[in-house]
Amino acid sequence: MKLFAFFTSIFLSVFLIFGTAATTDSTVHKVMDNVVTRLYQKLTPAQLDTISEAYILPFLTNEEKQTLATRYWTFDVNVPVVVSLMRDQAQKVPPFWLVKSGFKKTNMQVKNEEYAYEVWQKKFPKGKVALGINGFDKHRPVYFVGVGTQKKSDKLTISNVFPANQHIEEFKVGAFTYHDWDELTLTEVPPALQGQQLLTTIRGRAREAHLVKAFRQTDHPAVNKPDQLLLSWSADPSTTIDVQWRTQAAVKTGKVQYWKKNSTDMLTAKALPFQMEDRLLRNDRYIQRFTAKLTQLTPATAYAYRVGSLSTGWSEVADFRTEAAQPEAFSFVWFGDTHKSPDWGRMARQTLERHPEISFYSVIGDLVSTGLDRNEWDEFFHHSGKVFSQKPFMPIPGNHDSQDGLGAAMYQNLFSLPTNGPDKVPSERTYAFNYQNALFIMLDGTSPINAQTAWIEKQLSQSKAKWKFVMLHFPPYNFEEDYAQIRKEWGVLFDRYHVDMVMSGHVHYYMRSKPMFAEKPVDSPAKGTIYTISISIPSQHKNWPEEPYAAARFQSGPVYQHIRIDNNKLTLHCLDEYGKVKDEFTIVK
């Protein structure tokens, strides 16, 4: 699936006001926040795991039920209509409001390649249509809606749609219903519904009222003392660095103490706190994330630092080195999908021992498996140990980090990255940075492709870097999924401005292509771009068809890549978890 999402976290965090029966400031989001808070107060963790819809409904007030029944999805119609609600027949419990509000199940059925939907209908007069939640479960194929006029002669106009940024198209075979899975199209539409207006949605809306089997816990909750130390760059790597860490929510202040190694001249920088919430994380709902941006550093200099405060205590001392102002050789390590795996974590910790000289790390997306669950990010940081406290980390998001059409808000809150990306893409998900004589273009494949194309060309056309690299989660060349649009829109730019290497993940195998130009192999890296794919967790592909563009490949992970650049020479080594070289090549300019 493409997963080029059109929606963002607006569905979880911003709800407008509709309806009249509930209080004036009531929204689904506020109701669920209050309900979860009361559940924490009343139930033990074991009891939270057993709640059902039969328990939830009496637990709610009448006002809360009214909000959940009327303020999940609303729009205005200019003529009397029949609203058809397509509900996945595999969902065990129908939404509590569906029958009570007057919807009736028909004999019609709508299908796509994965699901079969019951069709429920209700007549509405001219004015507002108000619909309720999908359910208290997290049933990802949420309902979608068709709207037709009661009189054939009427011309329908739908307006004031909430949530905003909705898409309306013709209800027909071939239409898609989920923006986060736009290749899943309808295969069967009853004649009575064909030609009506179809309101599409995202699967992430299943999370908005999730309570049944919803609660999670983290094995690594925050404490007062700082942890999860993380370095990154949002500005010039030669004179700045960003330092981040985590504490319990009760900690309100923090700072960084830093000094040149072998010096006693200590400097201090205040950190900005940001409270993060994962309301279903029962043992660590709120945490504090701190970010300090150190500036006016001396190039090519080793620094030591620690974070915290007198009241919370201090972290262990770690160190970093700034980029040299004058050209020098450098190296970096990049990983394919990590999925917060302990296998990847062990390998990552070993890379720091094997390659202590590296300048930074990157992960090419899918850092975790469910990017909306903070307990998975806790696992990611736990398994990586102290690696990112000593070397800056410059990642990009994958489809698992930006999931179900809800965007990658948690990813964005966790990492301090450059904000120089295209205007129409969420900040810090697509960005560029320079290190020595190399340009790194970091692309968010989960955002619309055409929103990034002009920005990519600008970065490439204006760059004077000797080496040009692109990091992109979805691999333009692979045997599992065809990314023709990426090749068409971005591949031509990689050809035109001679990108040396494109680094990807997603498909869970290793591949290094021959140099490619205009989608065909050429005989020299000077004439084309080398495309690489990697995987950082155990994997095995049973299906293993030929790839005529491949120069080297293998089915299983985990592996990582160490790249060294010394002026006009690049050397790549792909190594397994034991440090054995699995693939290598050199480019000389």
UniProtKB/TrEMBL annotation:
The keyword Signal belongs to this UniProt entry's keyword annotation: yes
Gene3D superfamilies per the UniProt record, alphabetical: 3.60.21.10, Purple acid phosphatase-like, N-terminal
GO molecular function terms attached to this record: acid phosphatase activity; metal ion binding
> Mind listing the UniProt keywords for this protein, alphabetically?
Signal
Q: Where is the Purple acid phosphatase N-terminal domain?
A: 226-322
Q: Does the keyword tRNA-binding apply?
A: no
Do you know which Pfam families this protein is assigned to?
A: Metallophos, Pur_ac_phosph_N
Segments forming domain Calcineurin-like phosphoesterase: 332-510
Q: Which residues form the signal peptide?
A: 1-23
Q: What is this protein called?
A: Metallophosphoesterase
Which species is this UniProt entry from?
Answer: Runella aurantiaca
User: Lineage, please?
Assistant: Bacteria, Pseudomonadati, Bacteroidota, Cytophagia, Cytophagales
